[in-house]
């Protein structure tokens, strides 16, 4: 563990600083490609729908106006949610979770893993944390040199620990976490509605195209409309499944990482350890004001550090605790390499 911390602080000898800076900027630019792809598709869809369908194809003025207004409302909400998801202010872990230099020196100079575990336990005794590693030790990030708050994980793409990390999404070039999870949910929901609206309003013209009575063969505009139907159908299928899955996660108060590996408490692993009931779980993400639920403004409850827990019977807690230590007592030590799961490093 000590060597891994030291290796993070020392650059490889002879490594060219210019090459490192160049690689860093190239990597940053590369990460924006998925976002640019989404923006390009939406820009083309605007041309296909507003110009080719509304202006050049639909003959009824009333129908043009209705389609035009509804389309722009959905586009505005979709773009607003997408923007907030990408550029959300992801706040760092509070300083009280970071090991001071003197504690870090003690940790590095400890002669045994039991001594390291004791140092972390003493440091974290006043911190509001309830989750543990599989071996029962304090969750510690040797890259950020801090004790992880509950539901926080280290993102290897962002190179930092993130509060209530769900996953790193390349399509928004950001971590989906406590600070932007509501925006991400609205982004998925409005993107799905956007695709369904385009698909349903283009469907009659696709049917006409299929029957051979939609425009002339020389009319290029009709191909934009038909292609818009297929693209919106394809995205609607993928977005529908993803949005439905995250609705399930919200209802059960889980993150994607917790769905794959249940959080570990002193009483053992519990996939419903943070669930307070479907409605309370929904309010934890979307807030208590119904007027703001559908708007991409931050209304999530809490601070991303401390989470309410369901009440548990003391006898049940004691029984689960004894069973948990019998089950995990022979597992790996706190800093065993097997403990460094990829789930904590995503």
Question: Structural class of the secondary elements?
Answer: mainly alpha
N/C terminus separation: 19 Å
What spatial order of strands do you see in the largest sheet?
Answer: 1-8-9
Total count of helical runs of at least 4 residues: 11
Radius of gyration over C-alpha positions, nearest whole angstrom: 25 Å
- How many runs of DSSP E, i.e. beta strands? 9
Which outline best applies? elongated
Blueprint (SSEs and pairs):
Elements: H1 2-9, H2 17-31, H3 33-55, H4 61-86, H5 101-109, H6 113-124, E1 131-132, E2 140-141, E3 146-147, E4 153-155, E5 160-162, E6 167-169, E7 174-176, H7 181-211, H8 221-252, H9 256-260, E8 264-265, E9 268-269, H10 278-286, H11 314-328
Antiparallel strand pairs: 1-8, 2-3, 4-5, 6-7, 8-9
Helix pairs in contact: 3-8, 4-7, 5-6, 7-8
Domain Palmitoyltransferase DHHC: 139-260
Protein name: Palmitoyltransferase
Membrane topology: Multi-pass membrane protein
Short description, anyone?
This protein is mainly alpha-helical. Helix content is 53%, strand content 6%.
């Amino acid at each position: 563990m000590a060597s891994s911390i030291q290796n993070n602080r020392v650059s490889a000898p002879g490594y060219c600083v210019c090459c490192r800076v160049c690689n860093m900027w190239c990597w940053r630019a590369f990460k924006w490609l998925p976002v640019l792809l989404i923006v390009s598709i939406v820009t083309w869809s605007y041309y296909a729908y507003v110009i080719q369908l509304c202006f050049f194809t639909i003959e009824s003025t009333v129908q043009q106006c209705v389609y035009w207004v509804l389309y722009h409302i959905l586009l505005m909400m979709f773009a607003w949610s997408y923007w907030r998801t990408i550029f959300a202010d992801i706040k760092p872990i509070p300083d009280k979770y970071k090991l001071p230099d003197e504690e870090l020196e003690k940790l590095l100079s400890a002669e045994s893993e039991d001594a390291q575990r004791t140092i972390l336990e003493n440091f974290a005794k006043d911190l509001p944390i309830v989750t543990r590693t599989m071996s029962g030790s304090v969750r510690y990030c040797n890259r950020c040199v801090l004790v992880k708050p509950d539901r926080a994980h280290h993102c290897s793409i962002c190179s930092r620990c993130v509060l209530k990390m769900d996953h790193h999404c390349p399509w928004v070039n950001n971590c989906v976490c406590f600070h932007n999870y509501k925006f991400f949910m609205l982004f998925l929901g409005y993107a799905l509605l956007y695709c369904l609206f385009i698909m349903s309003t283009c469907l009659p013209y696709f049917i006409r195209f299929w029957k051979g009575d939609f425009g002339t063969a020389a009319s290029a505009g009709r191909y934009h409309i038909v292609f818009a139907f297929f693209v919106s159908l394809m995205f609607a299928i993928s977005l529908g499944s993803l949005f439905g899955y995250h609705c399930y996660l919200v209802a059960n108060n889980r993150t994607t990482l917790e769905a794959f590996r249940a959080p570990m408490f002193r009483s053992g692993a519990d996939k419903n350890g943070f669930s307070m009931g479907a409605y309370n779980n929904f309010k934890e993400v979307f807030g208590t004001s119904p007027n703001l639920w559908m708007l991409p403004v931050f209304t999530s409850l809490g601070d991303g550090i401390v989470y309410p827990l369901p009440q548990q019977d003391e006898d049940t807690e004691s029984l689960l605790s004894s069973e948990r230590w019998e089950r995990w007592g022979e597992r790996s030590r706190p800093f065993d390499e097997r403990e460094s799961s990829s789930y904590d490093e995503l």
